[in-house]
Predict the 3D structure of the following.
Amino acid sequence: MGIFPDVLVEPDVRAGKLVHLLPQWSLPEGGIHAAFPVARFRPAKVRIFLDMLIAAERNRSRESRTSRR
């Protein structure tokens, strides 16, 4: 059990892999924000996590544009 932004789990919810336990509740809208200290060499796991968030947000934006048509 966990609390995750819809953008990260929506495909698994639609596929039936996850169950939305509190459908009336959601995180506030406002986009994704990532804050971390400036570093000359950023660990690969941080870069991979950021890439995943960016890809998920692009997919969500693309799907919302498609569903409005």
About this structure: Residues 6-68 form one domain. The chain has a mean pLDDT of 80.
